[in-house]
Amino acid sequence: MFFLGHMAWAYVWATAFAGRRWGRLFVPAGLGLAVVSDIDLLLAGFGVVHHTFTHSFFFWLVVFAPFLVVFRLKSVPYFVAVAQHFAFGDLLVGKVMILWPFSQSYYGLNISMPSVAGVALETVGLSLALGIGYFKGDLRRLLSVDVRNIPMVLPFLALLTSMLFFAVDWPFVLLVEYVWSSPLLTTVVLEHIVLALFLAFSTTQGLRSLIIESSDNMLERFREN
Fold first, then answer.
1. Which of 200, 184, 192 has its CA nearest to residue 167?
2. What mean pLDDT is predicted for residues 2-19?
3. What is the pLDDT averaged over residues 103-122?
4. DSSP string, 53-75
5. Distance of CA 102 to CAs 52, 69, 83, 86, 212, Å?
6. Contacts by residues 23-29 (CB-CB < 8 Å, ≥ 24 positions apart)
């Protein structure tokens, strides 16, 4: 699954476990944790194989154990944000070593990413995330001038990196022709652009809030002097 789908479904699943009892989801953290399992791609130079131990339920259960002990139910939505990556997304669109270290077998339906089913999962996930975000008020807050939106830069950089990962070896003209050659590719690229613009705007709003706050503080000090 593309980072688009991982982030969208992380919000959907994590939000389902968030609330008064579980704690309100801090969206930037949920979106960032959605793709942290793919850190194995950066570790390929050290001999780490993609979809192995970083896509294991038990590996992340051990990692999250201290948080589950200290923060209890409040940490559950963030564990869900991580686990849905391989227990839902990659289990459908790919194969993962989800039971490592107890089993080194790969499990999954191995649906192709650019297939109708694969792109449908991305589209449904993004649509659900936007709908839930609207009704819960998260969209309004994430698009407002709020310093808490600055961490949205992390999922934005992660999404941008994943987009460049697929495009870096293509000359621009050939890449555009390739994308427009298939409705499925066009759809998933446009959805990536929508999410990237949303994350970038939210980050900008956070920085804008910081600048406004700093300016107000400077003006207040000037008046005091």
1. 192
2. 93
3. 93
4. GGG-HHHHHHHHHHHHHHTGGGG
5. 12, 24, 17, 16, 53
6. 23/71, 23/73, 23/74, 23/77, 25/77, 25/138, 27/138, 27/142, 27/152, 28/149, 28/151, 28/152, 28/154, 28/155, 29/78, 29/81, 29/151
Query: To the nearest whole number, what is the mean pLDDT of the chain?
Result: 90
Q: Report the alpha-carbon distance of residue 52 to residue 105 in Å, rounded.
A: 9
User: Could you give the CA distance from residue 48 to residue 50 in angstroms, rounded to a whole number?
Assistant: 7
Which pTM does this prediction carry? 0.91
Check pLDDT > 70 for residue 33: yes
* 11, two tokens: 């919000």
Burial class (CB in 10 A: 0-12, 13-18, 19+), 70: exposed
Band (216; pLDDT cuts 50, 70, 90): low
Question: Rounded to the nearest 5°, which phi and psi values hold at 182?
Answer: -135, 130
Q: Is-contact 83 54, C-beta < 8 A? A: no
35 CB-near residues (< 8 Å, 6+ apart) = 3, 6, 7, 85, 155, 158, 162
Distance (Å, rounded) from C-alpha 81 to C-alpha 175? 32
Question: For the segment 154-210, what is each residue's pLDDT rounded down to a tens digit?
Answer: 999 999 998 887 766 665 556 566 677 888 889 988 999 999 999 999 999 999 998
Axis-axis angle for helices 116-136, 3-16 (nearest 10)? 40
The domain segmentation of the chain, as residue ranges, is 3-224
- The per-residue pLDDT for 195 is 96
